[in-house]
Design brief:
390 residues, Rossmann fold, 3-stranded mixed β-sheet, 12 helices, 37% helix, 18% strand, binds nicotinamide-adenine-dinucleotide, binds sulfoquinovose-uridine-C1,5'-diphosphate, Epimerase_deHydtase, NAD-dependent dehydratase, NAD(P)-bd_dom_sf
Length: 390
């Protein structure tokens, strides 16, 4: 589809101040959609709680959207509020009447959810109640609004058979059915996504809601064409032991001379994707909505890697840049398989037209260079993992 042929939609981006939500909101706005951001700004408070900050300096949400307007003439209204407050969610729905809601607005760190009972309960209440409120607001205000929900590949765990896209055909005692793929999530956070999936599936069946569950892999990278336009549009990138994710952490560690923190053997294999593909996938899902009553599941990642493979690749690229980097095998703070079979299907987004940005040495080099530029903002004390699963 050419840019000038794109259907203009009203899209509500919940969690639009976060790592995936901010670049997505800008991309959708640039592509001509009418975008509104809803966020409670709680992610910025978790940084304060954990004594950390984004590697890159980030402007306030108000400064971000003002800069966007100044640079492009495009307006992105913002509404600050908590998705667990139903009156707030319904009022935003009544005001904006979205064609689609992209729901990024959850607590997304597995380690954060494993800190203690309080953080586990908070994560599940925040995520499950927020999603339920969105489902009820869709039912009350605009039943044909397409819910595009960020799920996670971690809902499936690492079974010893191929992971299918949401559903699996099972033959049992001479009968056959297509059933939701079995879930073996890795943490209380990943469990919250499973609970969400079940609630959404039920509402699709009961009320005829249309929904797409995007089981996203680990996102890496930082820059999109829009976020690099101006310092006030910079995206956040996490490197700490609670919110930082594997590949981004390794690049930042390489830049500041910290050993690469591989947990255990490092054979843990996951699906990964570039942040530029996250924004592309969201737009593809929005332009091709699920049918009324359909609970559609896409596996949103582009390549599989083991953690050790990624650490070795970062080590090689860093060496080419003249940086000597060691790989440390830390005792694994998590309970997970460190060597296992993994093969996950991911064809549905490609069928819709996804043109993936596969992992390149150039991207790793650029991430390492970005981290070198902001090395003064890196606090070595927050790099080690602190939350344990046991
Ligand atoms: P993030 O923490 O950077 O952003 C989430 C945003 O949601 C934050 O701005 C936060 O303030 C907001 N938020 C959280 N709870 C809220 C609430 N109750 N009300 C209003 N706003 C709330 O996370 P991210 O990395 O951008 O992830 C976005 C989504 O994508 C999450 O649902 C996450 O589970 C999913 N996801 C992320 C990754 C990844 O690697 N980052 C991978 C797979 C899936
Ligand atoms: N790991 C290391 N060293 C590190 C960090 C992580 O070895 O320094 C390992 C972990 O043990 C795990 C794997 O790398 O085996 C992935 O961990 P991660 O922290 O990069 O990602 P994860 O906890 O799975 O969570 C992230 C996002 C989450 C999203 C998920 C997608 O924070 O929101 O849902 O990726 S997925 O992994 O597909 O479930």
């Amino acid at each position: 589809m050419r840019t000038d042929e794109v259907k203009r939609m009203r899209i509500l981006v919940a969690g639009g101040d976060g790592f995936c939500g901010w670049p997505t909101a800008l991309h959708l706005s640039k592509r001509g959609h009418e975008v509104i951001i809803v966020d409670s700004l709680i992610r910025r408070k978790w940084d304060e709680e954990l004594g950390t900050q984004s590697l890159t300096p980030i402007a306030t949400l108000e400064e971000r959207v003002a800069a966007w307007k100044e640079l492009t003439g495009l307006e992105i209204p913002i509404r600050i509020g908590d998705l667990t407050n139903y009156e707030f969610v319904e009022s935003v729905f009544r005001e904006f009447e979205p064609d689609a809601i992209v729901h990024f607005g959850e607590q997304r760190s597995a380690p954060y959810s494993m800190i203690d009972r309080e953080h586990a309960v908070f994560t599940q209440v925040n995520n499950v109640v927020g999603t339920l409120n969105i489902l009820f607001a869709i039912k009350a205000v605009k039943l044909d609004c397409h819910l595009i929900k960020l799920g996670t590949m971690g809902e499936y765990g690492t079974p010893n058979i191929d992971v299918e896209e949401g559903y699996i055909r099972i033959r049992h005692k001479g009968r056959e059915d297509v059933l939701p793929y079995p879930k073996q999530p890795f943490s209380f956070y990943h469990l919250s996504k499973v609970h969400d999936s079940h609630n959404i599936m039920f509402c699709c069946k009961a009320w005829g809601i249309r929904a797409t569950d995007l089981n996203q892999g680990v996102v890496y990278g930082l820059w999109t064409p829009e976020t690099r336009m101006d310092e006030r549009l910079y995206n956040r990138i996490d490197y700490d032991g609670v919110f930082g994710t594997a590949l981004n952490r390794f690049c930042i560690q390489a830049a500041v001379g910290h050993d690469l923190t591989v947990y255990g053997k490092g054979g843990q294999t996951r699906g990964f994707l570039d942040i530029r593909d996250t924004v592309q996938c969201i737009e593809l899902a929005a332009l091709h909505p699920a049918e009324p009553g359909e609970f559609r599941v896409f596996n949103q990642f582009t390549e599989q890697f083991s953690v050790l493979e990624l650490a070795q690749r970062v080590q090689r690229v860093a060496a080419e840049m003249g940086l000597k980097v060691n790989i440390a095998h830390l005792p694994n703070p998590r309970v997970e398989k460190e060597q296992h079979y993994y093969n996950a299907v991911h064809t549905k987004l490609t069928d819709l037209g996804l043109k993936p940005h596969l992992l390149s040495d150039d991207l790793l080099r650029e991430l390492i260079e970005t981290a070198q530029r902001y090395r003064d903002r890196v606090d070595f004390k927050v790099i080690a993992p602190t939350a344990t699963w046991r």
